[in-house]
Specification:
With 297 residues, this protein is mainly alpha-helical. It has two domains: 66 residues; 211 residues, Up-down Bundle (f41 fragment of flagellin, N-terminal domain), CATH 1.20.1330. The chain has eight helices and four strands, in the order αααββββααααα. Helix 1 packs antiparallel against helix 7 and helix 2 packs antiparallel against helix 6. The radius of gyration is 39 Å and the shape is rod-shaped. The relative contact order is 0.17. It comes from Desulfovibrio ferrophilus.
């Protein structure tokens, strides 16, 4: 190679190699500092697209698991209120049994009936007052078949739809929670219900008929609680969402996370190459001085 003054080709070559080494060093620093192998689309365009889809699925699964936990809390709230209604019905059964015997006079039965009606009114109050996040649970708003659910309005009607899947492709992405009416009139007890057995225990015969009506009310209430228990157990089984999210997170990690050991070797290599390029550029920049020495003689 000729010794020239106008163009220092060795310095240009060293500068280009130094820029390449600094680029590699900057990439390694970015990956090691962020912990990501894919920090931009330029690193791995296909990998970035797959990673973002996986991240959206993971986020949706975690939210789905939270939705399930909220639904379980809702069911437990309804079941707790139904348990209190159960206690009231048991007391009403006890009062009806007391009024059904002939050892009490009419005035005493009226006193017994007043407590009976008070228990019925309390059942209705509990059913109307029990709510979860503003959603009334036992007043019949959530009753009906699954097909009765309408979610197109601002306030959904019919059974409550619990969504936990990451899509909306099939019935495996959601469950319905249907809870029948648990007011005293719906159970057929108290003077708020239709006239008939269970309406009152103010007479001996009425108290005797009320025994069967209260038994039917307890069975109806037990069906509500059994349905709630089955739904709660079914929702607990959906906790496999966390397992699915964990496995998907592992797949996403293999795509996007940096292998620190491997990247550290690349960092050291780029660092050494950068230092060598800087040193050689300094040497190359001194070559024109040799020409000046020849000119100066």
């Amino acid at each position: 190679m000729s010794l020239v003054i106008n163009n220092n080709l060795m310095a240009i070559n060293a500068a280009r190699n130094m820029g390449s080494a600094f680029s590699m060093l900057a990439s390694s620093v970015s990956r090691l500092s962020s912990g990501l192998r894919v920090t931009s689309a330029a690193d791995d365009a296909a990998g970035l697209a797959i990673r973002e889809l996986m991240r959206s699925e993971i986020a949706a699964m975690h939210q789905g698991a939270r939705n399930v936990n909220d639904a379980i809390s809702l069911i437990q709230t309804a079941d707790g209120a139904a348990q209190v209604i159960d206690e009231k019905l048991i007391r009403m059964k006890e009062l009806a049994e007391q009024a059904a015997t002939g050892t009490y006079n009419s005035d005493q039965r009226l006193i017994i009936d007043s407590e009976y009606q008070a228990m019925a009114s309390e059942i209705t109050r509990i059913a109307n007052a029990t709510d979860f996040n503003g959603i009334h649970l036992l007043n019949g708003n959530l009753s009906g078949e699954n097909s009765a659910h309408v979610g197109s309005a601002l306030v959904p009607t019919g059974p409550l739809k619990v969504h936990f899947g990451s899509g909306n492709d099939c019935s495996e992405d959601y469950y319905y929670i249907s809870i029948n009416n648990a007011t005293a009139s719906a159970l057929g007890v108290g003077n708020q219900s239709a006239a008939g057995a269970g309406f009152s225990i103010s007479t001996q015969s009425a108290a005797q008929f009320a025994l069967d009506a209260i038994k039917n009310a307890i069975v109806s209430k037990d069906k509500i609680r059994a349905n709630l228990g089955a739904l709660e157990n079914r929702l607990y089984a959906v906790t496999n969402l966390e397992i699915m999210a964990e496995n998907l997170q592992a797949s996403e990690s293999r795509i996007s996370d940096v292998d620190v050991a491997l990247e550290m070797t690349q960092f050291v290599r780029a660092q050494i190459m950068s230092q060598a390029a800087v040193a050689m550029l300094a040497q190359a920049n001194s070559l024109p001085r040799m020409a000046m020495q020849l000119i100066g003689g």
